[in-house]
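Bump. Still looking for Aquaporin AQPAn.G structure tokens.
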Amino acid sequence: MGKDWKGAKDFVGLEEVTKVEFLVMLFAEALGTFLLVLIGCASCITWNTDSPPTVVHIAFTFGLAVASLAHVLGPVSGCHVNPAVSVGLLVSGNCSFLKALCYIVCQCCGAIAGSAVLKVLIPTEITARGLGATNLGASITDGQGIFMEAIVTFLLVLVVHAVTDPKRTDTRGWAPLAIGLAISVSHMAAVPVTGSSMNPARTLGPAVILGEWKNLWVYWVGPLLGAFVAGAVYKMAFRRKKEDDEASYDF
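Sorry for the wait, here they are.
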């Protein structure tokens, strides 16, 4: 009975979120997602119609942005900066329910703020061409979009688990690079299909500022589904033993 109570208590995480230090973690998540959306979406904007941003350009911008943020914010909050990552870590037992919920709220707020600031920084005639919003490619159905988003997010969350696993000493020091590369290669594959969100907050930000809600649900269902499966797969198949240490980018 005592063990079950402790497990339920750890899952909810009430004690964790009532600490003063948790406010710093929430700020780190909001700031990280703010910067990710601002910088990442800026790379998607077409300044010259004769020379739009390439897939490689966008892929490396997002990948390097996350890798940079992981170095700074990883030891502070784990640098999830993505609701899908928080959900994946919740499923695998590496993040409490209340912590994941609070993180997701802050991530969404940070993403919306990032898009708002980007809109202010870019001339109106340029933002009229887009604000880095993700859209399904030509002839891509909702089902195909969900499946693609689930696959690339599955890869991302699986990599996050591997490089933050306290039992994996071989990956120590490589977390930011590994995660950044996973994001980059996923963008190279998925940008023509879905715009490669992999991050519901990243899609929510531009959607709110532009007031365009079409297919927004695809970019929540797909990544969250992929994250859920990745968290479950890693917990059941790839992690050797249950660890009490919470996964983070602290290396």
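Residues 1 and 7 are 10 Å apart (CA to CA).

Edit: fixed formatting.
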